[in-house]
Design goal:
The protein is an alpha/beta fold. The protein is about 35% helix and about 15% strand. The structure holds 2-keto-D-gluconic acid.
Length: about 325
């Protein structure tokens, strides 16, 4: 019997590639994003795909998937894969939910601190030779201690963010469909009510149609003028044009973003806002975490090869 074939669509951390080479598979490694036509063709040639967020596997591609039976996604978010279409086609889909929890929460806190303390703006000024020296009123930001962190969603990353935020003396509130177990977290029945009182509003919901533009001009208008918006979830959750307008007009104080609606494009209005901290989707970008994510994807593949239950099955 010929070996099962696996396509890895991006370069993986070395330990992940090393382990892959020991698995009973014929593996093809691709260095960069795989163009759509090649991805379509791959679904007819490979039994297993190990894709990332940059590979959009929609219902049209899945309809033509003659060979693929497992999509072992490298990453927690899977809105780039049409899960319903995969289910109907009998293709299993897994993700890597636990590996990146703390790392992404750390990045949410990084963005909060940078936005609150105007760190990016200060650094840009210094590098441009425009720092004229210390002054009692120079580049004044705001502190986090005692402020209210409003979590939108209460999954793993939101809970990890809350844990870190407590160390900064923040109070925590939440709007979530799932029950909130912590005694010190006030829950709100509506997102608008939470947005009205939060000093920092941090997004932790999945992407996709259900959450598209949850943060729009209407919601931004309800936020405090001193509030900070943090997005480490998915770009589609925020209407970027509306956010750029709100930041430029000072309707909210600042935003810290790691994800964008059309990555790697960033709304031009955001690029000119000094009060926007803009990071290039670094949420899970540490060597340890990217390695752990790869290993978790391989654990799912190993389970599938063994005919066992898939540890992180999402479809
Ligand atoms: C990943 C992420 O790096 O896992 C996620 O959902 O957003 C990122 O941190 C990316 O998805 C890799 O596919």
């Amino acid at each position: 019997m010929s070996a099962l074939r696996l396509l890895v669509t991006r370069t993986m951390p070395p330990p992940v590639e090393q382990r892959l080479r020991t698995m009973p598979l014929e593996v093809e490694f691709r260095p960069g994003p795989v163009p759509r036509e090649e991805l379509a063709e791959a679904l007819g040639r490979f039994d297993i795909l190990l894709p990332t967020i940059t590979d959009r596997i929609d219902s049209e591609l899945i309809a033509g998937a003659a060979r693929t039976r497992l999509i072992a996604n490298f990453g927690a978010g899977v809105e780039h894969v049409d899960l319903d279409a995969a289910r109907s086609a009998g293709i299993a889909v897994t993700n890597t939910p636990d590996a990146l929890t703390d790392t992404t929460a750390e990045l949410a806190i990084t963005l909060m601190l940078m936005a609150a303390r105007r760190a990016g703006e200060g650094e840009r000024r210094l590098r441009a030779g425009q720092w004229k020296g210390w002054g009692p009123t120079a580049i004044m930001g705001q502190g986090l201690s005692g402020k209210l962190l409003g979590l939108v969603g209460y999954g793993r990353i939101a809970r990890a963010t809350a844990r870190l935020a407590r160390a900064f003396g923040m109070r925590i509130a939440c709007f979530s469909r799932s029950p909130v177990s912590a005694d010190d977290i006030e829950t709100f029945a509506s997102l608008t009510e939470l947005a009205e009182v939060a000093d920092v509003l941090s997004l932790h919901v999945p992407g996709g149609t259900a959450t598209r533009h949850l943060v729009d001009a209407g919601l931004l208008a309800r936020m405090k003028p001193t509030a900070i918006l943090i997005n480490t979830a998915r770009g589609s959750v925020v209407d970027e044009g509306a956010l750029a307008d709100a930041l430029a007009a000072g309707r909210i104080a600042a935003a810290g973003l790691d994800v964008y609606e059309q990555e790697p494009k960033v709304h031009p209005g955001l690029l000119t806002c000094e009060n926007a901290v803009l990071l290039p989707h670094l949420g899970s970008a540490t060597l340890e975490t990217r390695t752990a994510m790869g290993m978790q994807a391989l654990d799912n593949i190993a389970a599938w090869l063994a005919g066992a239950e898939l540890p992180n099955r999402v479809a």
